[in-house]
Design goal:
With 233 residues, this protein is α/β, with parallel strands linked by helices. It has a single domain, classed as Alanine racemase (TIM Barrel, Alpha-Beta Barrel), CATH 3.20.20. The structure holds pyridoxal-5'-phosphate (PLP).
Length: 233
């Protein structure tokens, strides 16, 4: 597989560029986060070699094992999977950005730890746009409750709330999830007006099966694993 990572990555980058072009967007506003979950450190080194600097992992324990095995300067580590409160401390120490803040309780915990560490932690709020029970993320059904949660997170002094993240449902045709991404984008525009104390720079949306549609709908970070590294076991 390692031999295929370079060509796979080049193809993904080309598809990102074409999607940006179709949407009339600048390529520089879109970051590819290479999702290396379940992959060995050598695979991570292979994308580093090809100048990828943003790495996504979905589990704190896995990053804790992998990170010390690598000596690659200048990497930005993104936590993209669900974070349990009891692992918040480790997450703050291992990651540069947390995409998966899905409760006020977790946000408060991260803020307390970041305060101890005298740092400000960049975070995104994960939104469960479709409301599926199997998914993590803040729900939109009760809009008032959602906005109370956003305002609490936005006001935490040691978190830097910088946007939204979502995971779309699995679809046969990526067009089926376009409305999910459009909804997240519209939500971000509303929140920007309602909560100007946060920066709302990022929309983390789009994975192997749907990243082009996500870019057309405004994604600034796409999280891609299989299209680069091949299928997971
Ligand atoms: C695994 C994962 C990805 C990448 O998924 P692929 O389908 O392999 O591109 C993106 N985001 C999250 C939250 C993930 O867990």
């Amino acid at each position: 597989m390692a031999d295929e990572i370079g060509p796979n990555l080049a193809r993904v980058q080309e598809r990102i560029a074409l999607a940006a072009q179709r949407a009339g967007r600048r390529l520089s506003e879109i970051t590819l986060v290479a999702v290396t979950k379940t992959r060995p450190p050598e695979d991570l080194a292979a994308v580093y070699e090809a100048r990828v600097r943003d790495i996504g992992e979905n589990r704190v324990e896995e990053a804790a094992v992998k990170k010390p095995q690598l000596d690659l300067p200048g990497l930005t580590w993104h936590l993209v999977g669900h974070l349990q409160s009891r692992k918040a401390r480790q997450a703050v120490d291992l990651f540069d950005v947390i995409h998966s803040v899905d409760s006020v309780k977790l946000a408060r915990k991260l803020d307390a730890i970041a305060t101890e560490r005298a740092r400000v932690m960049p975070v995104l709020l994960e939104v469960n746009v479709s409301g599926e029970e199997s998914k993590y993320g803040l729900l939109l059904a009760d809009r008032a409750a959602f906005e109370v949660a956003v305002s609490e997170v936005a006001d935490l002094p040691h978190l830097h709330l910088d946007g939204l993240m979502t995971v779309a449902f699995v679809a046969r045709d990526p067009e089926e999830v376009r409305p999910i991404f459009a909804r997240l984008r519209a939500l971000q525009d509303e929140l920007r007006t309602r909560f100007p104390q946060a920066t709302w720079q990022h929309l983390s949306m789009g994975m192997t099966d749907d990243f082009e549609v996500a870019i057309e709908e405004g994604a600034t970070m796409v999280r891609i694993g299989r299209a680069i590294f091949g299928p997971r076991e």
